[in-house]
Amino acid sequence: MSILEKYSAAIKNKDEAVMNDLLHDDFKFTMHKSGNVLGKSDVIKWAMSGDINQDKVRVVYENETRILDVEKQHQVKFNWKPFSVRAIMKEMNNIPFPKDKMNKVNYMWRDIERRAEGYGFFAKPPVPYPLSEFDLANQIAILGFDKGWGEKFVMLTYKKWFQEGKEPAIEPSISEVCAELNLNKNEIISEANSENIETKYNENTNSARENKIFGSPSFIVKNEVFWGDDRMEDAIKWSLK
Hints:
Number of strands: 4
Number of domains: 2
Shape: globular
Distance between the termini: 47 Å
Mean pLDDT: 86
Radius of gyration: 19 Å
Largest sheet: 2 strands, antiparallel
CATH superfamily of the largest domain: Glutaredoxin
Order of helices and strands: HHEEHHHHHHHHHEEH
């Protein structure tokens, strides 16, 4: 059972102990209509009252789901190109979470948590990193975009990674994601490791190098690079020039 399923069940069963265990002490919930902000104890009290209606539940997750929302808002379409940012960063001798700079590392994890809250959802860093099956996760995504389920795979994988602490492309994440998407896990892994997908992965990575990309997410518009989810709207504005 995923953390969201546990959360939903706790509300339905009015299980205060489970709610208390699931929610971070700094958890904040922003009411969509009023803008009022509820803390952890307020949300638990509300859940125990039986007054929460779960008929229309919508879960939003940072960059990936935000991209879908932005596409609808601005009537644009992003062309996803999974690539090996790890290979590029190694070439630049760039270590994103250096163990000898813990103040920076702690700031980066906390910044992810703050930005998640700003977008109206939660993240529970630190999460598993670096990834043991980094390349496989990207290659499954490439396969998924070829077959029409890539966006859903990426969103579900990131949710399990940043909300449940489950590393992408290994157990239990890979089995859970494939089950939710009605995919055959063994067939998916086999296809993702095929020569055709590996070639596309290398081509995407070489294209990133040629476009002077140094981090992810990056957006390319008219040979201009926009780095970071906070530059997404800037990229769209540039596309309209």
